[in-house]
Structure formats: C-alpha cells, structure tokens
Specification:
This protein is mainly α and 422 residues long. Helix content is 61%, strand content 4%. The radius of gyration is 25 Å and the shape is globular. Bound molecules: zinc ion (2 copies).
Length: 422
C-alpha cells in the first residue's frame, strides 16, 4: 500500500531519504516549495512573475540582442529613484532649516528633531567590507575568477568569500562599490571546472548585464522604500497595547497604516518599471555564462543547483552525531555519484515545470534552459581545462577542514534551533 501512488496506483520505487513521487502522473513531484519572498520587493516580484514572465520570455527569445538599452520604463525608474532620494534629503534640509530659523521655539525644535531622525533613519546604508580571502594565499582561484571577468569585459572583483552554503552570489559593498563574489564550497565541490566557469560567468555577468536594480541610484532607492515601509507600518513598529492604551493606539495605528501604503505603492511601481529589465538582465547573465564556459556547461551548472536536497541530506547526516570525524565533502561527492535515477528524473521534471524557479528574482528555469538552447555557444571563450583545479582545491583545503570541523561539532538539535531562529 505504502509504495503505491495514491493518485494512479502505480508502484513507486523506494529511496528512503529522497522524495517519494510518481513518474507516471507526477504525484508529489515537488513537495519542497521554493523560498518564500523575503520582503515586500520579492513579493511584488513574484506576483509580477506570474503574469509577465511568459510574455517577456517570448519577447526576449525573438530579440536580436539582450544587451541593455535605454527604455521609457528604465528612464522612469531612474527618475523615480532620484525623486525618492530627494524626499529623503528634503527631510534633512527641512530639519536643519527648522533648527536654525526656529530656534529657540519649542515646536520648531520638536519638528526639527523628528525630521532629522527620519532623514537619519532613511539614509542610504552601505554594507561593511567583509573578510575576504587574501589574494596571495589563493592565487589559482583568483586567477580563474579574474580571467573570467576579463573574458566578459567585467571589472575585476575585489575579493572572494567562501562559505558552507549550496549557493553562489555577487554583491556590492561599501560606498566604493567593491564587488565581492561569494562561493558556497559544497556547491563548488560538486562542479566540474567547466561548470565552475559557468557559475562564475553567470555571477560576473551580473556586473555587465546592465541590471538597473543593481545600480547605485536605483538600488539605494529600493532600500530606502523598504525602510520607509518598515518605518511606517504599525505592526512592525510597536507591540499592540491593551485596555485604554489600545483606544488611543487605534487611530494612530490606522493613520500609520494608511501612510505605509505610500512606500508600498511606490515599491510596487518601481518593481513594475524594472521587472522587464531585470528579467532581461538574468537571461543575459545566463548567456554570459555560456559565452565563458559553453552552453553545455551553463546548462549543467544550472541543473546542479537543484541538488540542494542532496546537500541537505548529507549535511544532516554529518551534523546528526556530534564529534565524529566524517568528511562531509567526501560523503557529498559519493552521494552525487549515487543519486538514484528516479531522483535525477524528478529534478529534470521540476526544471521543466511551469513556474519552477531557483530564486524569486530569476526567470522560471524552463525559460532559462530554452533561452540558453536558443542562443547556443558551442565554443567556450575560456578554456577551463587549462586551469589547475587541483591547485584551487589545495588552496581551499583549510576552509574545507574548517567546514568539516564545524559540521561535525554541531549536533542536529543545535542546528534545528538555529534554523528555527533564522
Ligand atoms: Zn501516479
Ligand atoms: Zn542571476
């Protein structure tokens, strides 16, 4: 009974740790839903994606080039972002004026403090420079990444961070616009050298694909709006009161709630204006990956990203018992070699599933695959095989040991607690 599909009664193969699903009727194909939106911006993005991603995909497929162009929505987004910054700045200006002209009037002083506090709260913020891998100690890794940047005509990155996640990303920190590449060692460890080139090609592609949401002006405006919203939304501002206080609180909350709709609406408007351009930018980043490493490697690295479930299984196993000396990376590699065909097939089908995507801001995976196949790059511009993967691994050995040690010293109980908090 247990090993039959509840939908069509077909016999199901048993792989205890993997998802049980039916290859005849696709029952339970994708029980793990993708990440939930992290904030308002991603929520809007998801909604827009449901209505627009297919139409945009068809359009971009016909387009002669995916390179950035000035368009009316893009121009409006830039102007609108400028306007948002002007609003923030005007709070500071009004606050200063009230302070200087109104002195020592108590009302003027109060107004000045409120305005200046708002301005301070909403100022653009810059992430601090994280600890990056020193170039001198990781020459092979940096040369590989630098050469990919050079191939794409991208600015060389400032630094690389390696962590224990099954992921990779590129981000900008500090006001000097320093680019930091983050590589998750578990993902990195299961990629071939060509797939690694494709992974980096996509991430570095983000710095040359003209994504407006990643520009300084628009990016900081988005941050400001999110902060405006959090600042005004009463539920995020204070705890609900009881008794008499609740009576006083109610109209104030209502007022704030109404005011909070303004940044919310603005955020939606920006998301709407930028949506087309950011989707284009993602397809272009994929294409850059193909230019660097070839279409085949770009597709393969995209597929490997779907093995996060396997990463989780191995990670849970290693962390389940404390103080053992298990080699997480070796077990992951073995696991990857033994993934049952039934699970591989499941991942292939999820990739083809309408609406399936790796991250909310990325287009649905079937479109990304289709687009990569539509503009095939047979010959990779970078010969990844010329790079010494062994030396790169040797350079990363200490970090590998560190992660192993950490996974072995965390008990499952502790991890679960961490997860619940996060
Ligand atoms: Zn079935
Ligand atoms: Zn991307």
């Amino acid at each position: 009974m247990e090993n039959r599909c509840p939908q069509c009664n077909h016999t199901l193969p048993v792989h205890t740790e993997y998802v049980k699903w039916c290859d005849l009727c696709n029952w339970n194909l994708n029980p793990l839903q993708p990440d939930k939106p992290k904030n308002l911006w991603e929520t809007f993005y998801e909604t827009l994606g449901q209505s627009q991603s297919r139409r945009l995909f068809e359009k971009f497929k016909q387009a002669p080039s995916l390179e950035p162009r000035m368009s009316l929505p893009r121009l409006l987004a830039i102007l609108f972002s400028l306007f948002i910054h002007i609003v923030t700045i005007s709070f500071v200006v009004v606050g200063m004026t009230l302070l200087i002209r109104g002195w020592p009037n108590i009302f003027a002083l109060f107004g000045a403090i409120v305005c200046l506090l708002i301005g301070w709260q909403l100022r653009p913020r810059f992430a601090k420079m994280p600890a990056i891998l020193p170039r001198g100690e990781y020459p092979a890794l940096y040369r590989f990444v630098d050469d990919i940047a050079h191939t794409l005509g991208a600015k060389p990155i400032t630094g690389i961070i390696v962590d224990d996640q099954f992921n990779a990303s590129i981000g900008t920190v500090t006001r000097h616009r320093k680019q930091i590449l983050t590589l998750g060692l578990p993902l990195w460890s299961i990629l071939t050298i060509e797939e690694r080139a494709a992974l980096i090609g996509h991430e570095l592609g983000h710095s040359v694909n003209g994504d407006p949401a990643r520009t300084f002006l628009v990016g900081t405006a988005l941050d400001s709006l999110l902060r405006w919203y959090e600042f005004l939304h009463p539920a995020l501002l204070w705890e609900p009161q009881r008794g008499l206080f609740a009576l006083v609180e109610l109209p104030i909350n209502l007022l704030f709630l109404i005011m909070a709709q303004l940044p919310k609406l603005s955020l939606y408007m920006l998301a709407y204006l930028l949506y087309r351009d950011t989707q284009r930018a993602e397809y272009l980043a994929d294409h850059k990956a193909a230019v660097v490493a070839g279409t085949r490697a770009a597709l393969a690295s995209l597929e490997k990203m779907y093995f996060e479930g396997t990463y989780q299984i191995v990670r849970n196993r290693v962390t389940a018992v404390r103080n053992t000396n298990r080699d997480f990376f070796q077990e992951l590699a073995e696991r990857m070699r033994q993934v049952p065909p039934h699970e591989v097939e499941r991942i292939r089908r999820i990739q083809q599933l309408e609406g399936s995507r790796l991250y909310i801001t990325h287009p649905p995976t079937p479109y990304r695959i289709d687009m990569l196949l539509h503009h095939p790059v047979d010959e990779a511009r970078l010969v990844a095989a010329h790079y010494d993967a062994h030396q790169m691994d040797a350079e990363l050995a200490a970090i590998r040991d560190d992660i192993n040690q950490r996974f072995n010293s965390l008990s499952d109980y502790y991890l679960q607690k961490l997860k619940r908090r996060g």
